[in-house]
Amino acid sequence: MTDRRSVPPAGADVIPRWRPFQLYPQLPMEGLDRATFMRARFGDEAARRGTPQVILDEARGAGIELNYGAVKRVPNTLNGHRLVDWVGPGAQQHALMDTLFRYYFCDGRDLGDLEVLADAAASVGVDRNAALATLSSGDGADDVRTLVQDAYDAGVTGVPCFVLPTGYAIPGAQSVETLTRFIERAREMEQADART
Fold this sequence. Notes:
mainly alpha, Glutaredoxin, 9 helices, 4 strands, 5% strand, globular
């Protein structure tokens, strides 16, 4: 009998491929002051209301200490998406996304700043000078804008949105159990297709 603890969970070998999506593509490239953005988007009460406690509690339960108070600017994320796309799919891209999320949501770093993005790249083993040169050049901007538009055209309206190789999309934050079930089902479908 196999010890279930030695069997990797479904999805343990899955490495996400991050695709660009901009919630606010109309933001100026230098971003906006967060308090000004929050008032314009959600009204005067939003700036006073703060982050819902349930979000902070769920993050804390996952070992993440969100610090929205440290966030001073809402960035235009185009250059961040260019960097992620340039790094390409795989473990390094996934590590970069973790770093970018931590930089913004925990440390309050400005992800619209090319130097901050280059620091994030270097922290996951990417050549900092090459990353900064790519970001400074503007290379890939039109490709990323096209991918963002493709997401809108496909009906994506928010993040996160998980798209499986079967083409099935799972919108919104989901539990590990829910994602595991979808991954298992996608594998079953893929294996059934391979047999036919």
